[in-house]
Specification:
It comes from Alloyangia pacifica. This is Glycosyltransferase, GT2 family. Keywords: Transferase. Pfam families: Glycos_transf_2. The protein contains nine helices and eight strands. By secondary structure, the protein is an alpha/beta fold. The chain folds into two domains: about 210 residues, Spore Coat Polysaccharide Biosynthesis Protein SpsA, Chain A (Alpha-Beta Complex); about 80 residues, no CATH class.
């Protein structure tokens, strides 16, 4: 269902899209954080596979904002696309939050301030106080404490641009609605859809995306619902950068360096694997992708057969 454009989009009206799978407790925590925003979201869209992914009904009912729920097949790209389909016509900014992000109370207000200060910019990623994705993860309680401490010392929104990357980090990115009209997340990147955020932002003109301290939070790096198969992720680590390089949404240097770095890390990591990473599975997936590349049949959708 697509909402008609009954109203002129307004940057003070923000839709938050959250694609979630198997993390109802993380989702509940995120909703409660959104309910404490200094600028309330105009619309929150939860894109899930089934009702089992949702928090209990009382959690949904107690929120003071419009919640839209869409259900369908799992996969970060199709779930985010279904969320985009539900964005109302009066929305001026679309934010994508991971379900394990803990945003500051001032996050949405920071987005509006950023776009008001920089009308030439199409998208932005905020500052992460901490990111658990590269380690064992950050507990929700620890993340809440970090954000609460930062909010306690809050002395105003800083809408500065610290860099202008080619693409944005998917856990806390937002776009001017008008800039992404017609853009979609690539559904040829299935399941966890590794690098789909880089592909999405890479479709916009260079120099119109920014990193900024205008909004901030903590990314827990929750492991549930993420790496269910090291084999599949290992394949994606080699295949997806090359796929995006050929597509033109990833710079040549990054598209070549990323697979090589992953291959080295995974094969060295077999010697001393981290408990939260299946290094052996990733390394095997890397090798299968290399063989497929030599055979001319490299395809991101191949992970569905692994």
């Amino acid at each position: 269902m697509n909402f008609a454009h009954h109203f002129a989009p307004d940057i003070s009206r923000i839709a938050v899209i959250v694609a979630s799978l198997g993390r109802p407790d993380n989702l509940a925590m995120l909703l409660d954080q959104l309910s404490q925003q200094t600028l309330m979201p105009a619309q929150v869209i939860l894109s899930v596979e089934s009702d089992a992914d949702l928090p209990p009904a009382p959690v949904l009912a107690r929120q003071g904002f419009d919640i839209s729920i869409v259900r369908g097949a799992r996969g970060s790209s199709p779930q985010r696309n279904r969320g985009l389909d539900l964005v109302r016509g009066d929305i001026g900014v679309v934010a994508f939050f991971d379900d394990d992000l803990v945003p500051s109370r001032h996050a949405l207000e920071g987005m509006v301030t950023f776009y008001a200060e920089h009308p030439e910019m199409n998208g932005a990623s905020g500052t992460l106080l901490a990111d658990g994705i590269r380690g064992p993860g950050i507990t929700p309680d620890a993340a809440l404490r970090m954000v609460a401490d930062a909010d306690a010392g809050f002395d105003g929104i800083d809408p500065a641009i610290t860099s202008t990357p080619r693409a944005l980090y998917g856990c806390n990115m937002c776009y001017r609605r008008a800039a992404i009209s017609g853009l979609r997340f690539d559904e040829a990147l299935p399941l966890y859809a590794w690098l789909e955020d880089l592909d999405f932002g890479g479709q916009l003109p260079q120099g119109t995306l920014a990193h900024t301290p205008a909004f901030y939070g903590v990314h827990c790096g929750e492991k549930r619902g993420r790496e269910t198969s090291g084999l599949r992720l290992g394949y994606s680590q080699v295949c997806n950068p090359i796929y995006l390089l050929r597509k033109g949404t990833l710079p040549r240097r990054q598209g070549l360096r990323m697979p090589l770095r992953n291959i080295v890390r995974n094969h060295l990591g077999i010697l001393r694997p981290e408990p939260w990473i299946d290094r052996r599975g990733r390394a095997r997936g890397n090798r299968i992708a290399l063989l497929d590349m030599l055979r001319g049949r490299l395809d991101p959708r191949r992970i569905l057969d692994l």
